[in-house]
Recover the amino acids of this structure.
């Protein structure tokens, strides 16, 4: 795996067309809070992966047919597993075949998924990306669009790949303590994040200049009355987005805290599993030692009686040592916690800035 | 292309020869375009094949949602259809259209076929032919009218768009298939809250030379927004002071508007503000502190779980001892993590006093 990548230039950045950004935003927000997934097509040029188009994967429309509140969980699970399911594999091939006819880059370069407050690091993501990345010579990425964070201001879109060391370990599916000690694999080495650049075509640039942009430089005519001003507000520019000044941070912090608690719970379960394994192992080992001493004693007696000694390695057949639970879940959980705390840091940075601004606005004398 | 057209005259159109039992709708129609559909059309225009056809335009189908009364259609999606066009004939890949439509509807089951688009403003007899194909009962949108969207994509010119629906008009029976009356309908480009952040990022790149922009972090976005609002405030205060100096003509409406805006500022006691501010900022900081503590704890526990402990003498002893030691340490880390977790719960509840407990 690692050899295949190092042969040619490894991916170092991702360039996304504006069309893809809009398509992903639309697909993800349309199904929110259900997870949405889809495929990306494009090509790679000198280590930069250009994503030029995308299409969503079909999912069973559970949320629409049945408005039961818990159903979106089931739908999420179906959608999250979509990229690696067989039916969608054929759907993807079919779609790419048709897209090729209209000169779209007919080359799968990965997949995208939606996330809610950064809760995207789980086994599903890993398995999907592994499914894409296990092919030789592949150049595929996972794009994660965080719907709830984007609604709060800046668009949250991130590109990930699995690291070669993790790929090798996941292929073997061995995440025992011993192997991890040897390979020095930690949770920090699971995912590699790639920088994203958004790119517009010339035509699109031309179109964007026609959308409301900057404030008009020339003097405008004065409105004749207040109602006219409220009825025809001047166009608001898209950039920069003044939504970023929104002060309501509490719901976001609260949700992140809840998610952190869930992670701690997971961590605890993992530890309990591991302790159970340790106790089990210790018990078995005591039994083995007891058996060994007994056998040694027996052999000693047999030796005095001039008989052939009994074999000493029979215990391997008699006792079965428990298998060590996989460390993978714990690693992913650690990565997830790291992601949450970074997110909280980001929130804190911007909210404290905004709060000081508000304070000095309301209390000008104290500043 | 205007974002919205302000006033529009809806023309009544001649009725189509009605099929018994199905009445075609004649209600006025509004077309709403979503940005990603426009982006997709423009992308298609760039990728057109100029080698083997003489046509300079491309066509494609529009997909989206029609309101229940049929008065409003929202174009959400579209796909390209290969076609060839020359002097005297036009060929549309009907099979491709059918298959692609099926594929698209599989992924977006709520969307329906609305009409078609082309990338030149010109309407000709081929347009009529294709329009009749999209409006026909078997392959098109009947009894609802098919929407035809024309977008000019000529290099160096403004991008202009027009939306039409059609009514059948026949010079004589033989030519009915290739003639129809295009009636302009109003359209507007509308984007939702969710798309705003995406559009912001995209339009951030429009003034740069290489037409590209990196994804920015929250704090950078905030900085720009603050800069922008300071700039706006300066403009307003400049205007107000020039009115006061009698340099510029005053406007009652603007004055009223500014007064209304200023009266929105809450009248609160300075001490209250001080207290609320301190409480809130402490909450936020405690949450951040706890989150980082949890991260450190989990990191530590992960490290200890896989650390190679070199305490034992013989190899076999070291192996078992190492494993057990790792488990032990992991357990301790877990207990600590659990304790912190309790603190995090307090932070989540946002009680002003509770979060301080674990911080001791």
């Amino acid at each position: 795996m690692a050899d295949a990548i190092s042969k040619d230039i490894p991916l170092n950045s991702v360039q996304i067309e504006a069309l893809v950004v809009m398509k992903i935003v639309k697909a993800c927000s349309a199904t929110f809070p259900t997870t949405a997934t889809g495929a990306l097509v494009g090509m790679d040029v000198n280590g930069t992966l250009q994503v030029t188009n995308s299409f969503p994967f079909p999912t069973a429309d559970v949320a629409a047919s049945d408005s039961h509140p818990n159903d979106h969980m089931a739908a999420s699970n179906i959608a999250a597993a979509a990229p690696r399911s067989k039916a969608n594999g054929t759907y993807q091939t079919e779609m790419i075949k048709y897209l090729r006819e209209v000169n779209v880059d007919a080359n799968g370069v990965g997949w995208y998924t939606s996330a809610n407050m950064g809760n995207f690091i789980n086994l599903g993501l890993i398995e999907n990306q592994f499914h894409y990345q296990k092919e030789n010579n592949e150049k595929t990425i996972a794009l994660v669009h965080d719907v709830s964070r984007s609604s709060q201001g800046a668009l949250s879109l991130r590109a990930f790949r699995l690291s070669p060391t993790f790929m090798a370990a996941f292929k073997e599916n061995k995440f025992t303590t011993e192997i991890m000690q040897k390979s020095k694999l930690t949770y920090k080495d699971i995912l590699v994040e790639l920088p994203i650049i958004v790119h517009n075509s010339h035509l699109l640039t031309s179109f964007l200049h026609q959308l409301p942009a900057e404030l008009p430089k020339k003097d405008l005519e004065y409105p004749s009355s207040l109602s006219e001003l409220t009825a025809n507000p001047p166009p608001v520019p898209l950039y920069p987005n003044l939504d970023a000044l929104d002060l309501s941070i509490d719901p976001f912090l609260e949700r992140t805290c809840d998610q952190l608690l869930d992670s701690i719970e997971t961590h605890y379960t993992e530890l309990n599993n591991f302790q159970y394994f340790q106790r089990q192992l210790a018990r078995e080992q005591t039994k083995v030692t007891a058996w060994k001493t007994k056998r040694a004693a027996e052999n000693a007696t047999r030796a005095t009686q001039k008989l052939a000694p009994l074999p000493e390695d029979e215990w391997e057949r008699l006792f079965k040592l428990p298998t060590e639970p996989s460390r993978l879940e714990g690693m992913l959980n650690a990565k997830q916690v790291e992601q949450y705390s970074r997110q909280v840091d980001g929130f804190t940075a911007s909210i404290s800035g905004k709060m000081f601004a508000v304070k000095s606005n309301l209390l000008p004398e104290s500043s | 292309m205007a974002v919205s057209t302000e006033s529009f005259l809806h023309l009544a159109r001649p009725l189509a020869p009605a099929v018994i039992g199905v009445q075609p709708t004649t209600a006025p129609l509004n077309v709403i375009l979503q940005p990603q559909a426009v982006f997709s059309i423009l992308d298609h225009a760039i990728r057109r094949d100029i080698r083997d056809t003489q046509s300079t335009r491309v066509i494609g189908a529009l997909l989206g949602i029609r309101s229940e009364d049929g008065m409003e259609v929202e174009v959400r999606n579209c796909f390209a259809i290969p076609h060839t066009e020359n002097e005297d004939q036009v060929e549309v890949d009907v099979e491709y259209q059918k298959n692609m439509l099926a594929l698209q509807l599989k992924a977006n089951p709520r969307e329906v076929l609305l009409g078609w688009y082309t990338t030149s403003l010109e309407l000709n007899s081929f347009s009529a032919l294709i329009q009749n194909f999209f409006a026909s009962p078997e392959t098109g949108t009947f009894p609802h009218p098919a929407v035809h969207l024309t977008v000019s994509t000529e290099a160096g010119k403004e991008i202009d768009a027009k939306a039409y629906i059609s009514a059948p008009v026949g010079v004589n029976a033989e030519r009915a298939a290739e003639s129809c009356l295009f009636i302009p309908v109003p359209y507007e480009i509308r984007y939702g809250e969710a798309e705003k952040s995406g559009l912001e990022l995209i339009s951030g790149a429009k003034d740069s030379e290489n037409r590209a922009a990196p994804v920015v972090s929250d704090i950078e976005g905030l900085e720009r927004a603050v800069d922008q609002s300071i700039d706006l405030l300066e403009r307003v205060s400049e205007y107000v002071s020039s009115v006061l100096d009698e340099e510029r003509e005053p406007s009652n409406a603007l004055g009223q508007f500014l007064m209304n805006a200023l009266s929105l500022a809450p009248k609160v006691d300075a001490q209250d503000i001080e207290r609320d501010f301190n409480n809130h900022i402490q909450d936020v900081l405690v949450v951040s502190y706890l989150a980082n503590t949890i991260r450190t704890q989990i990191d530590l526990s992960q490290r200890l779980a896989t650390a190679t402990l070199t305490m034992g003498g013989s190899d076999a002893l070291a192996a078992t001892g190492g494993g057990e030691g790792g488990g032990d340490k992991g357990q301790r880390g877990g207990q600590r993590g659990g304790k912190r977790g309790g603190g995090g719960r307090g932070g989540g509840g946002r009680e002003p006093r509770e979060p301080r407990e674990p911080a001791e």
In short: The beta strands of chain A are 13-17, 37-45, 48-56, 108-115, 141-146, 157-162, 191-194, 196-199. Confidence is low (pLDDT under 50) at residues 1-7, 61-69 of chain A. Chain A has two domains: 8-60+74-203, 251-366. The two ends of chain A are 59 Å apart (CA to CA).
